[in-house]
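Chapter review: from sequence to fold.
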Amino acid sequence: MIPVSSLSLAATDERDAPLCLFSHPGGVLAGAGALPPALRKDLSAQAAAEGFTGELGECVGLRADRGGRSRRFLIAGAGRREDASPETWRRAAGVLYQHARGRFEEISVLPGPDARATAEGLMLGSYRFSEYKKADPSRLARAGLVFAGAAARRGIEKACAEAAIIADAVAMVRDLVDRAPSDKTPESIAALAQNLAGAQTKVTVISKAEAEKLGMGAFLGVARGGGADPVFLHLTYKPKGARRKIGLVGKGITFDSGGLSLKPAASMETMKMDMAGAAAVLGVFKALPQFKIRAEVHGFCPFTYNLPGPDAVRPGDVLKAMNGKTIEVLNTDAEGRLVLADALVYACRQKFDAIVDLATLTGAAVVALGSKVTGAMTNNRALLAQLFSASKRAGETLWELPLPREYREMIKSSFADLKNIGKPGEAGTIIGGLFLQEFVDDTPWVHLDIAGTAWTDSDTPTCPKGGTGALVRTLVEYLKAL
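The token string follows.
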């Protein structure tokens, strides 16, 4: 697996490297109390003269007298103080990194009020996928977060260490999502997942033959046209003294052509990202032992291709899921819910306090919520409230969609217990959630549709074009809070 970046991040006292600060509109420098008032005034005046306003996304380079000599300064906009959040500090730090990466070998950063978010922004912004193409070189090799006095050092060191864990987990997900589909067969991902095994983490690989014995007819039906054997991963993290038992389920379609219900060519161009949910589960498991999470956590990742091979499932076929429910497949491009059906049944039999599934499930989620908001559906409001709280701390936005019982009529089939699609063009994301609800019984459960948030079509301050690693931060925050 590719390392997160070549950026070295550590707590530091103030060095001769360019000193980086953040500013709100109006020339208010954040976290710069250690600087002399005259210097702060000079920097604010110079920045204003350069047209810098302090809005999020801006960055300006200046020179000013510091200790009797000329010193370089970088100031990044942090947006309005009343709008400040951990995510604004991440994005501002990401802008700072992008501005500095081609100019300097080292920077010193005054982290402002949120040192960990600043550190995460720097490290996430430094990520580049370079498995097939040499990444654009970055001169920036070291970033030091400046601590004001020895008493603050420990907090800054902790912020840097935790940011590195998160960034490394997110980078793992981005690497997997960005990898070419032919280079991430289910078996090859299973081999990579074995690297997560350790003293507290176990990785179990369920083969196609074992899945057949378990009755995973829905999962195996999708895999029939794939040309490569499917793999079902069961990861277990079991620390001593755990009082909660949580299941994470991720959709793992390593390439989605739509099957016989073939997608248009343009719609397939990013379908290597259809395993982002399962990749996120693997990313969380990378972080669990490092954060010493005290809950018992299980991960369930069904990996397969969805291709129109000679034995591919056909529209009109009926598949039987692990719990005995039969499913009429009317659209083979609604395959994610089929593999998740068996994964959820398998998970529920382990008796969890809560289950969370993540899936790039529906294009309708992108239409409804765009690329910055994840759709959330649940049968348990208390569990959803916990995830909402975690998402706010992580800077990832969730939005609840309902699961109206009357809409369930849309997935009733004349020839089976269920059908895998509803009415064309109507409530597509909700229908996907209602379908999955048929396979969780009474277990507290949240479904997260990351179809819009798992991929970015353009570079952002904290992520280049490609996989984003969506919801790794949220799930880690949720599990830490337990």
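Two observations follow directly from the output. Residues 30 and 234 are 46 Å apart (CA to CA). The chain has 14 helices and 21 strands.
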